[in-house]
Design a protein that fits this description.
Blueprint (H helix, E strand, L loop, with lengths): L24 H10 L5 H12 L4 E7 L2 E6 L6 H7 L6 H4 L18 H7 L2 E8 L2 E8 H6 L8 E4 L8 E7 L7 H11 L8 E4 L2 E2 L8 E8 L4 E8 L12 E5 L2 E6 L13 E6 L17 H50 L33 H17 L15 E7 L2 E8 L8 E4 L2 E5 L3 H6 L3 H20 L4 H16 L5
Parallel strand pairs: 1-7, 11-13, 15-17
Antiparallel strand pairs: 1-2, 2-6, 3-4, 3-6, 4-5, 7-8, 9-10, 10-13, 11-12, 14-15, 16-17
Length: 502
């Protein structure tokens, strides 16, 4: 070995050492790789203020400069050294803040990487008691000083700041940041719901999102800790494709949004929002994801899968209730029109003429609907109707077979005197018949593809229901002659939907 060999490299058989070094440029480039979105620096600096027991954080945007000022505990000399100790785990050893006993958010001590990746100059001004100082990190100067790793440090008069706290100023920003974008990041990435903590941007106070809808509270226990929060099912009119999923928060900070299998639900997925808190989840160093192969995340995922199934059931029930109201309105309209058409055409009715009491002009839109033979009075029509009905009162009717209905079945009846038909709209499967009857009960299949197609709009929905019901009523009149039944149906539909005045 030559005489120029480094001193720390030993001869054969002797212990030797190789120094571990890092190029200074990596201090900057690591941050740029860890924080692809440089706006993350805002979240990190606000969370630092929260960890330092600040009650107010002021963010001021001006051109290519952003100033973040807090009223926390500030830092002394040792605190500043710790602050610039890249990768420090001090917060793991002191997980609670001394004043407000807050669960500190920072874990890895690399949040300043985000700030360094966003700007050319990073300045820290801090005050704690009688101590005040300024530290400046200038990228250009940093790269010129070779192997010198120290940063310019200046002790200031104690009155440099009126109160304790820290001000971080970033200048020479790589891009322009909009206040609304920063507000969005603050809402998701900082604990603004915590008591005694407030964030303002250019004088505007940031407030949490407020969503309205059906709320499902969450409180589940695991071997690692609780899972809490709430899931909200938004009204259909408020659903949006933006910000899909449920926010998963660790220490009140959103790490990411998760769908938990909802991506297979189709459009209704856009109605589900909410947030869940699981402080025990291990997160990646850049705070943008979870360590998914951990036992903690596996247990969390099992809890969420059960919860999402409950949400799916609730969503289906809500959707069915809303759908049932819409179907009920269409069915009511269809039956009113059919009632009118049958009253105008008593010879087409399998129930006989509509009885009318003296001085009565019918019900609702069915005014002037009872017509007997020429010269007959309403009393005669009524009497004839009663005479026809008397034998049927003595004869015991055969009960129809009872179909097994779902809880969401819609049932309405069209009644003429003592008799009429019951209409049932329910699910009988896509391969089931579109409509069928048992005695005086008409069943309409809402699963049928034709029904689903025609039910998109109220007008076509009403017309389709009337078509199906009049078809069965016409067959009840004379089931042995389908051609006449079709003619009767056509006549009923025309009188039900065509105004004669037109």
């Amino acid at each position: 070995m030559s005489e120029n060999t480094a001193d720390n490299v030993s001869q054969a058989g002797q212990a030797s050492f190789i120094p571990v070094t890092i190029d200074k440029s990596h201090i900057v480039t690591i941050g740029e790789r860890l924080y692809a979105e440089s706006i993350e620096f805002v979240r990190e600096l606000v969370n630092n203020a929260y960890d330092a027991d600040a009650t107010l954080v002021e963010i001021a945007l001006s051109g290519d400069t952003i100033e973040i000022r807090d009223n926390g505990s500030g830092m002394d000399v040792e605190g500043l050294k710790q602050y610039f100790n890249i990768g420090s785990q001090q917060k793991l050893y002191s997980p609670r803040s001394p004043v407000h006993n807050r669960d500190r958010i920072g874990q890895f001590g690399i949040g300043k990487f985000a700030s360094l990746s966003a700007c050319r100059r990073f300045e820290v001004l801090t005050k704690r008691g009688d101590f005040a100082a300024r530290v400046v990190f200038d990228k250009d100067q940093w790269e010129k000083t070779g192997d010198v790793w120290q940063l310019p440090f200046e002790v200031l008069p104690a009155d440099s700041r009126k109160t304790d706290g820290t001000t971080v100023t970033l200048s020479g920003l790589q891009r322009t940041f909009k206040p609304e974008d920063i507000e969005e990041k603050i809402i998701e990435g900082t604990p603004i719901k915590a008591p005694d903590f407030r964030v303002r941007i250019n004088g505007h106070t940031v407030v949490p999102r407020s969503l309205s809808g059906h709320r499902i509270p969450i409180l589940e226990g695991t071997a690692f800790g609780p899972v809490s929060g709430e899931i909200i099912i938004l009204p259909e009119t408020a659903s949006s494709a933006a910000d899909l999923g449920i926010e998963v928060k660790v220490k009140q900070v959103t790490v990411r949004r998760e769908l938990f299998g909802m991506e297979t639900w189709g459009k209704v997925m856009a109605r589900v929002r909410g947030e869940v808190h699981a402080d025990f989840l291990p997160i990646t160093s850049d705070r943008t994801g979870f360590i998914r192969d951990s036992e903690e995340y596996t247990e969390f995922l099992k809890v969420m899968e059960r919860l999402i199934e409950d949400v799916k059931v609730s969503l289906q029930k809500m959707t069915m209730r809303r759908e049932s109201k819409r179907v009920g309105r269409a069915l009511k309209e269809a039956l009113q029109r059919i009632y009118k058409a049958l009253a105008e055409n008593p010879d087409l009715s399998p129930f006989g003429a509509l009885p009318i009491g003296e001085g009565t002009r019918g019900a609702g839109s069915a005014a002037e609907i009872a017509k007997g033979k020429e010269g007959e009075t309403a009393e005669q029509v009524k009497a004839e109707g009663q005479e026809k009905e008397e034998p049927t009162k003595k004869k015991r009717k055969k009960k129809p077979k009872v179909k097994t209905l779902t809880p969401n079945a819609i049932i309405k009846k069209i009644k003429f005197g003592q008799t009429g038909v019951s209409c049932v709209i329910d699910c009988f499967g896509e391969e089931g018949p579109e409509v069928f009857s048992e005695e005086t009960t008409i069943y309409i299949n809402r699963d049928h593809p034709l029904y689903r197609r025609e039910s998109a709009k109220l007008e076509t929905h009403t017309l389709n229901l009337a078509r199906l019901i009049t078809q069965e009523i016409a067959l009840m009149k004379d089931p042995k002659n389908p051609r006449q039944a079709f003619d009767r149906q056509s006549k009923l539909l025309k009188d039900a939907f065509i105004d004669k005045k037109e």
